[in-house]
Amino acid sequence: MVQKFALGDRCSFETHKGTIRYIGEVPPTVGDWYGVEWDTARGKHDGTYNSVQYFKCKPNHGSFVRPNKLCFGISDITALEKGYGNSGISEDEKTMVLNKSTRHETIIQMIGFEKISQKLSDFRTLQEVDLSNMNISHASLDSELHTLLPNLKVLSISDNLISSFKEVFKIASQMKKLNTLDISGNQINNWNDVTATADTFSNLNLLYINRMSLEWDKVLRTLKLFPVVQEVHACFNTVTQLFWGDELSMLKVLNLEGNQISSWNEVMCLSRITNLEKLILNNNCITKIEFPDNKINFQSLKSLSLVDNNISQ
Predict the structure, then answer these.
(1) Is residue 233 within 8 Å of 212, Cβ to Cβ?
(2) What is the pLDDT of residue 144?
(3) What mean pLDDT value characterizes the chain?
(4) What's the rounded mean pLDDT across residues 172-192?
(5) Sequence ranges of the domains in the chain
(6) pLDDT at 288
(7) Is residue 71 within 8 Å of residue 12, measured between CB atoms?
(8) pLDDT tens digit string along 27-75?
């Protein structure tokens, strides 16, 4: 049975990722189609088919796909098992455990349990886990990660199919020792029903939110969920304007490379971050730098990078 999904959900087909923009019939055919906006130009149209506009997207980014052709993601636990669960167990050993003979049943069961015990032990010693690009869309219903990965400090769930920050929160908040989180490349469209306190991510100080099509208000909204983070990389998003937000107050490092920031006056709002030591603004649209004489300018700043801007003065 094909599972039903909603507008805004993420999906994939082979190596291509996209977002559901339409669900319904496309005459003259019969049955439901999913209108998909692909992340790259691998589609056939802009959401218009036979002169009827079903959804809007960039040219050559839209397609209609039958639901059973799409992948709508897996849980964090399934991804962990795929990426790490079989380490240390050979195919021959798995065959032995699955194909038990009567005479050797007890011995083979012991081997199986020993391997499972060893696998769980290996999980518990892991401090870094990379689950990037594994089609994760949601947290496991049983919230098992905190028991499997009690010592985890670094987690990457980048380039997956996560569309709701609620799922990011449910995954990451289980690891109390987590200090580095990479959620880059996920196209989040839902920040609702998520509230964090300083205790939720009390050790998290490094956050990667690159390539997520975030405007500045969404960057601030993201930081609000990680209130003690000190280093943020928000590169290659769609930031065009900057303005102050209390969510910035803890930052020591801010990387905004590859955005579309043009106003130095707006950059100056970041000078209110009293602990900011490193600011990276490479590959933006800044043409002019001017520090007001009557203001305290970046009182803790040690490094400012402005490579690949078109600065004339």
Answers:
(1) no
(2) 79
(3) 86
(4) 92
(5) 9-69, 74-83+119-305
(6) 92
(7) yes
(8) 999 999 999 999 999 999 999 999 999 999 999 999 999 999 999 999 9
Q: Match 């001017």 to its residue by tokens.
A: 290
Cβ pair 203, 226 in contact under 8 A: no
Q: Measured between alpha carbons, how far is 214 from 218 in angstroms, rounded to an integer?
A: 6
The CA-based angle 203-208-213, given to 5 degrees, is 140
Amino acid at the residue 34: Y
Tokens of 172: 């990451």
Q: Please, are residues 253 and 277 in contact by the beta-carbon 8 Å criterion?
A: yes
**pLDDT tier for residue 293 given thresholds of 50, 70 and 90:** confident
Provide CATH code, domain 74-83+119-305: 3.80.10.10
- What's the pLDDT at 143? 67
CB-based contact 214:183 (threshold 8 Å): no
193 vs 313: CA distance, rounded Å = 46
Q: What share of the chain is helix, strand, coil (3-state, %, to 5)?
A: 25, 20, 55
pTM: 0.84
Element spanning 26, H or E: none
pLDDT in tens, 127-140: 999 999 999 999 98
Look at residues 59, 60, 67 and name the one whose alpha carbon lies nearest to residue 35: 67
* Strand 52-53, strand 48-49: pairing: antiparallel
Report d(CA 32, CA 151) in Å as an integer.
Answer: 45
Give the CA distances from residue 36 to residues 55, 164, 269, 306, in Å, rounded to whole numbers and listed in that order. 9, 18, 39, 37
Q: Is 176 exposed, middle or buried (0-12, 13-18, 19+ CB in 10 A)?
A: middle
Amino acid present at 209: I
Q: Which fold has domain 9-69?
A: SH3 type barrels. (2.30.30)
Contact 283, 307 (CB under 8 A): yes
